[in-house]
């Protein structure tokens, strides 16, 4: 679904989402202006294989985002970072019903495949079993056939 459609859908359906959909508002500490996506040389989506609530109080995403931007700057490039988390069960079911990526970037609302790199952060090895299913449900192929 195009990001304009996702943003419009969210605006109309925040009340139907878990905890009023605050997970998708964006504006977390150390985030960038969404308009910087267009001018970035490198676009990185940092995914956590758990819900937004599970990372509450964690500095990992913010630190990873800052490291990506700092390293890009050292190379004379501009990086843009965004975050995605697993949706709560209620939201997951609505996303599947309405064709919204389950790896919804909280800031830009873009499709994950629009990013150059998808970094995956996890706290438990058990979280890794979610990755293939999430990729498929987000329109990202598991394998890229060459030639």
The parts where pLDDT drops under 50 for at least 5 residues are none
Percent of residues in beta strands? 15-25%
Please work out how many helical segments DSSP would assign: 5
Main sheet strand line-up: 2-1-3
Total strands? 3
Radius of gyration: 15 Å
Commentary on this structure:
The structure is a single chain. The protein is an alpha/beta fold. It has one domain (3-13, 24-137). The chain has helices at 3-13, 36-39, 60-74, 89-98, 131-137; strands at residues 42-51, 79-86, 117-121. It has a 3-stranded parallel beta sheet with strand order 2-1-3, covered by helices on one side. The radius of gyration is 15 Å and the shape is globular. The model has no long low-confidence stretch (mean pLDDT 86).
Care to give the gist of this entry?
This protein has 147 residues and is an alpha/beta fold. It has helices spanning 3-13, 36-39, 60-74, 89-98, 131-137, and strands spanning 42-51, 79-86, 117-121.
Keywords, separated by commas or semicolons:
147 residues, alpha/beta, 16% strand, 5 helices
Task: Please describe the topology of this protein.
Blueprint: H1 3-13, H2 36-39, E1 42-51, H3 60-74, E2 79-86, H4 89-98, E3 117-121, H5 131-137
Parallel strand pairs: 1-2, 1-3
């Amino acid at each position: 679904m195009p990001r304009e459609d996702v943003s419009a859908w969210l605006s109309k359906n925040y009340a139907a989402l878990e905890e009023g959909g605050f997970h998708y508002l964006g504006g977390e500490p150390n985030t960038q202006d969404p308009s910087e996506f267009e001018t970035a040389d490198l676009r990185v989506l940092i995914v956590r294989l758990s819900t937004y609530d599970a990372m509450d109080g964690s500095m990992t995403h913010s630190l990873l985002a800052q490291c990506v931007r700092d390293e890009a700057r050292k190379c004379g490039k501009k990086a843009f970072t965004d975050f995605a988390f697993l949706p709560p069960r209620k939201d997951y079911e609505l996303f599947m019903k309405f064709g919204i990526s389950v790896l919804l970037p909280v800031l830009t609302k873009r499709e994950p495949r629009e990013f150059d790199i998808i970094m995956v952060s996890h706290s438990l090895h058990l979280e890794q079993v979610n990755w293939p299913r999430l990729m498929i449900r987000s329109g990202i192929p598991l394998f890229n056939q060459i030639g």
